[in-house]
Amino acid sequence: EEQLEESGGGLVQPGRSLRLSCAASGFTFDDYAMNWVRQVPGKGLEWVSGISWNSGNKGYAETVKGRFTISRDNAAKSLSLQMSSVRPEDTALYYCTKGRGGGDRLRDWNSDLWGRGTLVIVSS
Amino acid sequence: QSALTQPRSVSGSPGQSVTISCTGTSSDVGDYNSVSWYQHFPGKAPKLIIYAVSDRPSGVPDRFSGSKSGNTASLAISGLQAEDEADYYCFSYAGSYTFVFGTGTKVTVL
């Protein structure tokens, strides 16, 4: 069974750093692009960042560009999001998602598998 | 890279058709044939129902259809059913490996 499990969320003070991780299982991890998507409870979805199968292509939402860094370890079947200089507006449930392909085609970046999410709360 | 604009809510009676619009700009929706739609039940993982403007993943009923004109994409649901009551989000490529979701639309079946 294909699964994604996020971890690393919690309470963090503004300006500090936090690292989210996502463990993948049940599929060939290095065949697929991966994304981070966040949602403030009760609000809409926001795409945060994405990375192609071989880390050759990465993208960031303007709201996090320069502060967040996405990375992956294909050998460990793991996706990460390093969050720096966090702000209260980064408070959200962060989902790890699997793309439909490696990232060579735009359709590859659509998500067909989602984790349950990890909650990040930025507050002093 | 602002969120794409969707109506907050649409509603229809069972059997009717509803259409959800998704308005972007010439830098996202208007520039690429890479608009997708997700169906989201609260507490569940979003489900991809349309990709590449009008293609359906296997298993998605043909009651769901997508289209695009200029900077606006649309999702049509025909033969509305009670089980279609959910939140719907559009999703578009915005260049340089960045993507953007719409603001979300709640579909209510009367």
Can you put this structure into words, describing what you see?
- The complex is a heterodimer of chains A (124) and B (110).
- Chain A has strands at 3-7, 10-12, 18-25, 34-39, 45-51, 58-60, 68-73, 78-83, 92-99, 111-114, 118-122.
- The radius of gyration of chain A is 14 Å and the shape is globular.
- With 124 residues, chain A is mainly β.
- In chain A, strands 2, 4, 5, 6, 9, 10 and 11 form a seven-stranded mixed sheet that branches. Chain A has a four-stranded antiparallel sheet with strand order 1-3-8-7, with no helix packed on it.
- In chain A, a hairpin with a 6-residue loop joins strand 5 and strand 6.
- The mean pLDDT of chain A is 96.
- Chain B contains no helices and nine strands.
- In chain B, a hairpin with a 5-residue loop joins strand 7 (86-93) and strand 8.
- The radius of gyration of chain B is 13 Å and the shape is globular.
- The interface between A and B is medium-sized, with 24 and 26 residues.
Would you spell out the secondary-structure blueprint of this structure?
The complex is a heterodimer of chains A (124) and B (110).
Chain A: E1 3-7, E2 10-12, E3 18-25, E4 34-39, E5 45-51, E6 58-60, E7 68-73, E8 78-83, E9 92-99, E10 111-114, E11 118-122
Chain B: E1 9-12, E2 18-23, E3 35-40, E4 47-50, E5 64-69, E6 72-77, E7 86-93, E8 99-101, E9 105-109
Parallel strand pairs in B: 1-9
Antiparallel strand pairs in B: 2-6, 3-4, 3-7, 5-6, 7-8, 7-9
What proportion of the residues of chain B is helical, as a percent range? under 10%
Tell me the fraction of residues in β-strands of chain B, as a range.
35-45%
What coarse outline of chain A follows from CA principal-axis ratios?
globular
Element pattern of chain B in H and E: EEEEEEEEE
Gross morphology of chain B: globular
Oligomer: heterodimer
Number of helices of chain B: 0
Distance between the termini of chain A: 40 Å
Radius of gyration of chain B: 13 Å
Proportion in β-strands of chain A: over 45%
- Note the run of SSEs of chain A as H and E: EEEEEEEEEEE
Are there runs of chain A of 5+ residues with pLDDT below 50, and where?
none
The number of distinct helices of chain A, counting runs of at least 4 residues, comes to 0
- What helical percentage do the residues of chain A reach? under 10%
Q: Report the radius of gyration of chain A as a whole number of Å.
A: 14 Å
| Total beta strand runs of chain B | 9
Structural class of chain B: mainly beta
Biggest pleated-sheet summary of chain A? 7 strands, mixed
